[in-house]
Amino acid sequence: MYYRRTLTEAQINQQLLGTVLTTPLWWIVLVSLLGIVVAGAVGAVGWMINQGLGVTGLRQPVFWGFFITNFIFWVGISHAGVMISAILRLSQAEWRRPMVRAAETMTVFALMASLAMPLVHAGRPWRIFYWVFPYDWARGIWPDVRSPLVWDPIAITTYLTSSMLFVYTALIPDLAIIRDRSTGWRRSVYGALSLGWHGNPRQWKIQGFAGILLSALILPVFVSVHSIVSWDFSVSLVPSWHVTIFAPYFVIGAVHSGVSAVVTLMIIMRKLYKLENFIWEEHIDALARLLMVVALAWMFLFWLDLVFALWLREEQEITVWMLRMFEPPWSWLFFLFFMFSFVIPVPLWMFRRVRRSFTWMLWTSLLVNFGMFLERFLIIVPALMRKGPQTFTYATYRPSPVEFTIIFGTIALVCFLLLIFSKFFPLIPLWEEKEGQLLIDHVKVGNVYVPALVKEH
Amino acid sequence: MANTQLLGLFEDPQKVADAMGELKGAGFPVEDLDIYSGSPFPEGAFGEHEAEHRLFMFPLVGALIGFSIGLLWTAGTQISYPLITGGKPILSIPPMTIIMYENTMLGAILFTVLGVLFESRLPKRDLGLYDERITEGYIGIYVDCPVERAGAAEAVLNSNGAEEIKKA
């Protein structure tokens, strides 16, 4: 039950526009620190371009390593943002209000980080455009639409464009609020961005429909994008990759890591931005229950993936799984992945006290994401370093410091971009919070007051 | 006949509903009255003009355009620059559907956003008669009326407890 704190519109403005209208010291410090890490990663990319891919740990036959793992990881993170937001909007769940904007924004920045990875992975990033865009009109050379190298950028750019529009459309009323609280050039900028929003009944009605319509349209895109990412793998002939279960397995894995990332983000936001009046134990509890369902579904598909591999009795398939599960160091990573993604967090989430503890939920959600990064790593690397009839080398893969720097750089980049966003735009939608205040009341039943939600049909 | 605009600012939603009722009773057409608020109130809360819209048409049109572009792009490139593989058709349908699907959805989403802007009558260059307090909890009643009826409108707004009345 949600006992919403009663706040006036002015109080909501004041509390949610804190970092937009003023700049706290912690924000400057954090942005500077993260900026240094991002700059380090940019430097590492520059060094790699200058020296060649030899500075990474990529060697024949393992040509997909940390960069592609990171690509899958961030695409996965990006998925739950829009999924949570869209499902909660469609179902008009009351507890969506404080989390939709942050989740959608995380989607956009995670997608940007993921898009950077194939470019970095190419070693010569400019050459990737040769594969995707028509580059030589005179000779009539076009990219082959049958190639996953074309599907992937199209799917991800579709999702990125859609997510950005999704965020912007719901942001317009809040931009008008900031416009009305700003002066000088800021007022002009927010005035232009808010497009002359007045907040008349017509605009509110369209805004409401837009939320539902865009949610309904973006949900299938979210499912399709991670399915397409999984097809990058499953259309290949690499053992353990060409399984029919890969698309749903990837999608549910993405939701598992993405919802965990939303939990992490909400808890950190609550602490940093002092959002105790907006993000409560009930929100984290609801997300934890969702996570339990997702984790169990993910485990079912993981199990199916394993069973399908064993059922075929193909030597190659079994070799890869044996390598993953029983040969160090992969077996250690497999153990950690399994513990972090499922065995430790899921039983813990069964306890209400854990689900309602911000500290426990922060650490368990971080564990899940560490585990899910390992999962993607274990899907990719052991499968490529297999010993097969057509493979004459059997090399291991050890990520180099350059790769580690770039990976940490992408984590810092997403946090950095989220902080920059929060400086200019509110991370919690003000108008949705105000609407929540308007539509909720408490009615007395016997000796207790219970929240009664007024909904429009 | 010249027109003028008034904006009455209220704090209490009930007073807004009463003022709107009285304005309509006094012969002000509902199309010339508007409500400005900082949060969405339930439809019809103030007896305002109910907006008709065709937002649902936009994604359909966008989807059709996106699908057509996807079809032209995928089929066009394969027909124009065929990669002939023995025993296989020139057009490879399964990968085409992936691109066509994404383009269809992108078209639908782009047109939905365009539809949102069009149906919300945005962008507007000039805010016109407006007050910043509207996004801080005040509710504004906007009246567009002939100059000689401005006094009557102002009287209705005042009698219903308007905190302030602004005039264009």
Description:
The complex is a heterodimer of chains A (457) and B (168). By secondary structure, chain A is mainly α. Chain A has one domain (9-279, 401-453). Helices cover 71% and strands 3% of the residues of chain A. Chain A has helices at 9-16, 18-21, 25-51, 66-90, 100-121, 128-132, 148-181, 184-193, 201-234, 246-272, 281-312, 315-326, 330-343, 345-349, 352-355, 358-384, 401-424, 430-439; strands at residues 440-445, 448-453. The longest helix of chain A has 34 residues, at 148-181. By secondary structure, chain B is of the alpha+beta class. Chain B has two domains: 3-53 and 127-167, 2-Layer Sandwich (Alpha-Beta Plaits), CATH 3.30.70.120; 57-119, no CATH class. Helix content of chain B is 44%, strand content 14%. Chain B contains four helices and four strands. Chain B has helices at 13-25, 57-80, 93-119, 150-159, and strands at 3-10, 33-36, 139-146, 164-167. In chain B, strands 2-3-1-4 form a four-stranded antiparallel β-sheet. In chain B, helix 2 packs antiparallel against helix 3 (93-119). Chain B starts with a strand and ends with a strand. Chains A and B meet through helix 1, helix 7, helix 9 and helix 18 of A and strand 2, helix 2 and helix 3 of B.
The CATH topology of the largest domain in chain B turns out to be Alpha-Beta Plaits
Quaternary: heterodimer
Question: Of all protein chain pairs, which has the greatest interface, and how many residues does each chain bring to it?
Answer: A-B, 63 and 59 residues
**Beta-strand percent range of chain A:** under 5%
pLDDT averaged over residues of chain B: 92
Side by side, the strands of the main sheet of chain A go 1-2
| Architecture (CATH level 2) name of the largest domain in chain B | 2-Layer Sandwich
Q: What does the largest sheet of chain A look like?
A: 2 strands, antiparallel
The sequence of SSEs of chain B as H and E is EHEHHEHE
Order of helices and strands of chain A: HHHHHHHHHHHHHHHHHHEE
**Unreliable stretches covering 5 or more consecutive residues of chain A:** none
Q: What is the domain tally of chain B?
A: 2
State which percent range the strand residues of chain B make up. Answer: 5-15%
Task: Please count the beta strands of chain A (DSSP E, at least 2 residues each).
Answer: 2
Gyration radius of chain A (Cα, Å) is 23 Å
